[in-house]
Structure prediction request, 680 residues.
Amino acid sequence: MQSNNVSRSVEVSWMGRRLRRACRKLLLVQALFVCIVAQTYAQENPADLANLSLEQLMDLEVVTASRFDQKVDHAPSAVQVISAQDIRAHGWRTLGEALESLPGLYLSDTGLYTYLGARGQLRAGDYDTRFLLLIDGHRINDPVFSQSPVGPEFPLDMALVERIEYVPGPGSAVYGSNAFFGVINVLTKSPGRPGSGEVAINGGSYGSHGARAALSTGGAWGQTLLSASYSHSHGRDLYFPEFVGTETAGVISDGVVRNQDDERSQRLFLRHIAGDLTVMLLASDRRKDDPVAPYGQAFGMPGANIQDRWIVLGTQYSRALSETTRWQAQLDLIDYRYVGNYAYDDPYEVINRDISTGQSIVLGSRIVTTWSRHTMAAGFEAQLDRAVEQRNFDVEPYINYLESKHDVSSVGFFVNDEFAIGGNWLLNSGLRLDRNDIGTLRLSPRVALISARPGGTTFKAIVGKAYRSPNAYERFYNLDTGNGSQLTGPGLKAESIRTAELFFGRKLSEHSRAEVSLYDYRLRDLITLVGDEELLMLENAASGSSSGAEIAFLYHWEGGALLRTSYAYNRVRDSRGGPVLNAPRGIARLSATVPLGNGVSAAASAQHISRRATKLGSVDHYTVVDANLVWEPTRFPFALSAGVRNLLDERYADPVGPEFVQDAIPRRGREYRVELSWRF
Prediction:
């Protein structure tokens, strides 16, 4: 009995020390931010970093929530907008780093891919299939896994982003499947003056280096923006105690994997505007060595790697039929290819190759019209995922384990209406009917009652329903290689979610605004990867709920300094009982962007993520601080940025699913980066 009391005392003391250290870090960061902002506010001639007033920042128009232009305060969601200026000031290199700054969102890194969680939900085996990702309104989710890439695998260079619109909550009422937890629309920059452009080189920790170039052209045939970029990182050595003493190719492992974290990416982007016609071409190729050995691979064995390739052609034609009616047609062609080389040494050394390919054809049309007190969008979308092929085989000696080839299709009809009731009240109603290739019908409604008062007070009450159909990987990937098996559960069906949300935003002064969201999610038939690395199965394994609150505060000084802070509380439950994997209870964030004069600006941010459950226990809470400095002299056509990620060199890790031997994968420590760009 005394021993138990001593153990509890030691545990409480240890937890207390960790908590005090975390609090000291947050207090230090907050004090630093306040001092910097106060000093900047006192300057008489601040730099021209952000001259937009709070009213202008809050009066932005968005296009994603209802599929027509509307003010942020009128959108049927707690819409968040990230600007190109935010991206440049903080030095965000990936879409995930930018989205991670928003309330309720968080990232998890497996060492191969980066995944996005929302409001405590990031399931095992989820390849970010529950978000719909768009670039300029064109679908990016691939035809095999339906994944929305947000990490280094994101196929667009962040320097090309004009703004990001994130629409949290169910979007199936206007977008159909995948718009489950939210819709992400990345809007790119328009072509500049003909002959203008930019070139840049960058480098940083872990042997990282890269280059990019962009050029705008124009003439009677229209305007074009063309960009190409390349990046390479040698990566890091990783230590996993789970593999200490294991044998690979006759060698006893010390748990360290060396020189097996290399990553290379190439991207090409073209945007052409000619009158009412817009064309986008996007191509990317990303190759990454595999240091984490999922699916029962031999640890540290050379030859394990993955490759993702996207080619997207999007065309959009928009024409005014009258002063109040506009018609738009859109065609998206998506070609995707995944290659995974898995290394095994039992009973002999062999490379097992996984190849998944497919092409999506997405055709859509809609009409947006305004009459009396209504603004309405109505249209249809048809998607054919053609020749979705999944293969798995040993390279040498050749043994074939899987050869699957299927067509997957769906068609949907939607209508969304915004009705001005009167007295600053709006009623936004959306409804969509979808039918897939196996004959399943899905009806997805969304209703929002909105009050947007001129003084800056906004109230929204939103209810909705969304779904996600099983993708080709979940439906057809049945495999038994002898080194491990993965099966699709019988009778796999679509997931569904019912949501209710209250949003309240208020302008507190000429310079400040506060926002609060209360939400309740009810989830059913979630497709989850269960089992272990020897036998995995995808099945409708769980139902559950997620409820909580998000609080955000913004202060904008006249000189351009901007302070943001937020806190998200999530309470996640699962029908299987026990703690839910990778579901933080609390997420706190603080960021500041400050003009320092003479073209110099500084940005810093801190985030604290609470403890998260893993397969065998939990990973500890952590606090990460990032900082970035940008110099853009007005008299010279160049810019220099230097930043550090994880400034305090915090040690932390992310939980992983049953396909891994490890319980968690450690994240990178302190990381430096610098970029020099030249505009012409």
About this structure: Helices lie at 2-42, 54-58, 84-90, 95-99, 172-175, 472-476.
